[in-house]
Amino acid sequence: MCANRISKLSIITPSYNQGDYIEQTIKSVQNQNYGNVEHIIVDGGSTDTTVEILKSYDHLIWVSEKDGGQADALNKGLALSTGDVIGWINSDDYYERNIFQNVMACFDAPETQWTIGNLTNLFGEKGFFFRESPTVTYDNLIKSPDIVRQQPTFFRRDVLELAGGWNAEYFMVMDYDLWVRLAKIAPPLMVDENWAYYRNHSAQKSCHGNILKQSKEISTILRREQISWKRIARHQFVKRWYWFKGLVKERLINLNLVPGKYRTRPVRLEEK
């Protein structure tokens, strides 16, 4: 990659009661090979150990107060940020070491408006599953809403503001909604490097219980984009199938017919 220009990177972390994981998130931003970084944590008024952890890191820019949800927290973080490039990492996920220099080098090309790397799923402490990020275009997002990989994505600040930031009307799919609006402006630069880790655990939003809510929100976006009812119906069928399979798995786990470790991981995935 070409030599990097002097630019500032702002990392925004929305947070609520993730005291078990947030310190790893913080350290993953610290353990980088790029110096001009600010880390902004917008906490929704956590009642666990989160605030005490935040107080122990002097370099953080943080606030802890009741908010309107994850999208509202992200917009607050964007308003507080001063960087040319914006990254978004949740408080239970974390970055690969020493990737920020390569990330920032991507934005040396003026045509790069946003960029997406690869992602590794983390199940427990030993279950890792690498996922190459699918190519993101507007058409691909409409065909396959599940291709969104939020953790390894970085945005030029100008295009994020041009797209309008995050829509607080969405509880589950504020990322998908933003991706669709961004893709109509410019496609992202896809980079074949692992940039982040996505933690699967029982308290996360993207759990079995929220699949149907997620589907409803995606359908709203597809209707806004004037997508055919057949494609929307196909999407809803697939999500209901995922929900049904998850329900069967939970029942089997509760009956001790499937080990409990598979509650937050695919049954086919073993620890390595």
Radius of gyration: 19 Å
Tally of separate helices? 9
Distance between the termini: 33 Å
| Domains, number | 2
Beta-strand portion reads 15-25%
Sketch the topology as an H/E string, one letter per element. EHEHEHEEHEEHEHHEHH
Helix proportion range: 25-40%
SS-based structural class?
alpha/beta
Say how many strands there are. Answer: 9
Please, what is the average pLDDT?
Answer: 86
Task: Write the CATH fold name of the largest domain.
Answer: Spore Coat Polysaccharide Biosynthesis Protein SpsA, Chain A
How are the SSEs ordered, and which strands pair?
Layout: E1 9-15, H1 22-30, E2 37-43, H2 50-55, E3 61-64, H3 70-80, E4 85-88, E5 94-95, H4 100-106, E6 114-123, E7 127-131, H5 138-143, E8 153-156, H6 157-163, H7 174-183, E9 189-200, H8 211-224, H9 229-254
Parallel strand pairs: 1-2, 1-4, 2-3, 6-9
Antiparallel strand pairs: 4-8, 5-9, 6-7, 6-8
Brief summary:
By secondary structure, this protein is α/β, with parallel strands linked by helices. It has helices at residues 22-30, 50-55, 70-80, 100-106, 138-143, 157-163, 174-183, 211-224, 229-254; strands spanning 9-15, 37-43, 61-64, 85-88, 94-95, 114-123, 127-131, 153-156, 189-200.
Structure description:
The protein has 272 residues and is of the alpha/beta class. The protein has two domains: 9-200, Spore Coat Polysaccharide Biosynthesis Protein SpsA, Chain A, CATH 3.90.550; 208-264, no CATH class. 35% of the residues lie in helices and 20% in strands. The chain has nine helices and nine strands. Strands 1, 2, 3, 4, 5, 6, 7, 8 and 9 form a nine-stranded mixed sheet that branches. Helix 8 (211-224) packs antiparallel against helix 9. Residues 267-272 have low confidence and may be disordered.
